[in-house]
Amino acid sequence: MDSHIVLSGINKSYGNVIKAHVLKHISLSIEKGELCAIIGQSGSGKSTLLNILGLLDVADSGTFLYENTDTGKMSDDQRAHFRNSVFGFIFQFHHLLPEFTALENVLIPWQIANGSISSKAKARAKELLERVGVSKDMNNRSTNLSGGQQQRVAIARALINNPQVVFGDEPTGNLDSDTAENIFELIKEINRDVDSTFIIVTHDRHLAAECNRVIEIADGIIKDDIRLEQKTKAERWGVLSPCYCRLKQKVSSVS
Amino acid sequence: MFELKTAWRFLIEGKFQTILILTGIALGIAVQIFLSSLISGLQIDLVDKTVGRSSHITAVIPDRNGLSIVDDSVPILTKVSGLAQSERPVRGWRPVVEQLKSSGLFTSVSAVVDGSAFIFKGDRSRSVLLRGVSIGDAAGIYKLEKNITKGTATVSSTNILIGQDLAEELGLSIGSTVRIATPSNGGDLFSVSGIFDLQNRTINESWIFMDLRKAQALFNYSDGVTSIELQIKNVFDAEVISTYCSNTFYQFKWISWQKSNASLLAALKSQSSSSSMIQVLVLIAVTMGITSVLAVSAIQKRRQIGILKAVGATRSMVSNVFLLMGAILGFTGAVIGCVAGYGIIAMFIYGTSIQTGVALFPISIDVKTYLISILIATVSGLLAAAIPARRSASMNPVEVIRG
Ligand SMILES: Nc1ncnc2c1ncn2[C@@H]1O[C@H](COP(=O)(O)OP(=O)(O)O)[C@@H](O)[C@H]1O
Ligand SMILES: [Mg+2]
What we know:
A: alpha/beta, B: 15 helices, binds magnesium ion
């Protein structure tokens, strides 16, 4: 089996007095180049799982092997290095630095890795901004951009260091549905062009239906792990539509 | 460098806060610069007035039991020389003086024959201190070119210099003839060639400068002298050089000006320590100001710090951002403060000299003071940033990312 990302027996709890067991013994493996959606109700533990996968957070127990490297043994700085050079992040609230222009924001991960900006890096950043369609406004402060534009800049920033894995935590969650569709289309396109793995948390089943694989989390466990590559659009929707889910729930509660 | 750029942007973005704290730092540093310049100017002036026209280090003949150097109400030379008369003069002094002159340590070296004498003018007489000197050497120590008020700074076997108070008392002027007698000589006639003012009443009414050989003859000292007077460039080196001389030329007893001016030194010291106290207080205020501003900044920039950490900034990068912010605030504030302090000093000099043409107080403007102020303020800025830097560096990015 491909050992790109392998989780086994991951547990995570919050709170000291009243313990909330958020992730319960999660085991999961993700292959290189996958476009993988994580869905589930709010509070089910999607973000917690994504943060652990992205080395932003650490599990209480269980192992997370990345390319056969045990990430549990990493130091703070090693994890920071991974987040910078191996992973890319797209957050729900864009999270650009208001003190910097769009172009400068895209270059932040590069500068963290390399210190200074080479003309090559600048060219690459401009190319990425072109790709996401914000090249006209690249010298604007990030606060002067629309939400959709900011998220596009955030996508460019996530890609600047040629990451092996791109994580998105509801990257379209804060956008109107048309813009959300556009952004998701862009993510899909990029996933086709580069050979990076994309792991995207979303609560939008329409968007999830466009991915190769959908992992559904409920109450801290993996409730469903559906591969969609071979399926037609109708079949995908059949599997993922909320009605279907409700039906399935009903059936399982009856039986 | 990314940390520097980020620190800079953070400061520029919080314009109001940044300007406020910079004004605070600048004011503190300006006051500090002004006060320390004023105090050190006053000190330099005081020291110059005290020792500028006298010997800094004096070599005398050792083992004089009667010698008292504790009484500092009287200038040292008067005391030491006053007692010299009863002593056996030093004869082998010429090679010592040559060596001292060629050492490069001294700006003036003057061999002296001192002794008590009486001066007579008509039916009036006075007890005086006769000081036999090579006039060129003595002129260096007593700045005679500047301090001669009448006549010229020349002596010969028949010409002498007297102080202005003595001249007044005895009604003497340039060309007046006087008789001078010593215990071993009934008296010779001299003509006054110059009248000096060494800005010390005791000296002005009792000192007489005379040709060295003539004085030796009057006291029957053949080629002996009673002391060697020395001046150095930096008066505060006197102790060290005096000790050095004691170890090299042990046939003399070497006395620095500090030994005989203990109370002046104590005054200078307490002035200096009050000046340092002010500087320390200003620095504490500056450091606390920077700390509080950066603590606020650390909270305001929490989101940004979280994002930077999420995309891979290490702990040291984050803490460098804050350290640099502190250093930039300290440095910039101090530079503005130095300019402002200099401005206040220039205004003060201008303001106090408007009527008299000379500044009321002497003010020392020392580049070193400015550079040290800037350096210390920068280091204080760094220290002030330490706590906010640590706190930000250890922040968990997940808290911010969750939104
Ligand atoms: N820092 C925290 N402290 C306490 N509880 C937390 C913390 N972070 C998340 N939780 C809890 O963990 C559960 C899962 O959260 P999360 O992973 O954000 O869910 P999702 O992203 O699926 O909405 C929620 O019940 C949430 O309240
Ligand atoms: Mg979430």
